[in-house]
Amino acid sequence: MRVGVYIDGFNLYYGGRGVCGRGTAGWRWLDLRALATRLVADHSTWSGVTIEHVVYCTAAISGVDNPVGHQEQDIYLRALRRTHSADHIEMGNYVHRVARAPLATADRKGRPVLTKPAWPITVKDGAGHDDPDAQFVVSIARREEKGSDVNVAAHLLLDILEHRVDAAVVISNDSDLKFPVQTARERVPVGTVNPSGSFTAGKLRGSPNDGVGNHWWYQLTAADFQACQLADPTAGVRKPKPW
Asked: Of 18, 57, 76, 242, which has the fewest Cβ atoms less than 10 A away?
């Protein structure tokens, strides 16, 4: 059984940071092929498996905004290529823009709650009366990673439709992947892996018997990250010191 593995790099990174701890070492130097092999062996019932194709979708961190992150990412991508831990690295891009939005705080579920005027900061209307329903609008610099979810979806479906794989593993908790993942399940068994500590997105859930069946779901733990690290150095590349 030829298995294709499709990874949303930023979803995996931020998921790992949440699961393992932002300042914790020992999880970022991740061997993607080793992780895929571990997941399929431990959580699927698939037999005769070969990890045929590992696709890693990410975007280049700006060297202007984040020079350290840019350098560390470059080192990691070099290690993935030299070790063939990833067979293909698909690059999206960052969009930098200024956005305006109402000022808000998060409730217990992370949903936005608009900030209302309250003493000592109040707002007057044109007649000089207090306006308790006024909104504070702020201008912020926004950096958004674009393309990873689309690239994951495109590689997943192309490999399936062109019969290059017999099963697939998708590592992402992005609900935008609902349609391609559901479509994939109609044609091949799919393992859906949530890299974060949050609940698996409802749109990525389903039944093991959907479509062709034999699907499975899993949520990564800190142990998964820690057990699947590249050697240091690996293929002449040393991991960044904080890692």
From this structure: 242
Q: What does the alpha-carbon distance between residue 238 and residue 231 come to, in Å, rounded to a whole number?
A: 9
Environment class of 25 (CB within 10 Å of its CB; exposed 0-12, middle 13-18, buried 19+): middle
Instruction: Specify which residues 6 forms β-bridges with.
Output: 55, 170
| Largest Cα span, the chain | 77
With residue 137 as reference, give the H or E element that holds it: strand 137-146
Q: Supply the pLDDT for residue 220.
A: 98
Asked if residue 104 lies in contact with residue 113, where contact means CB atoms within 8 angstroms, the answer is: yes
Instruction: Please give the average per-residue pLDDT across 95-120, as a whole number.
Output: 84
CA 79 to chain centre: 19
Q: pLDDT tens-digit profile of 134-165?
A: 888 888 766 666 779 999 999 999 999 999 99
Q: How would you classify the pairing of strands 190-194 and 50-59?
A: unpaired
- Distance from CA of residue 216 to its chain's centroid? 18
User: Any residues with CB less than 8 A from the CB of 107 and at least 6 apart, and which?
Assistant: 113
Q: What is the pTM of this model?
A: 0.86
The C-alpha angle 73, 78, 80, rounded to 5 degrees, equals: 95
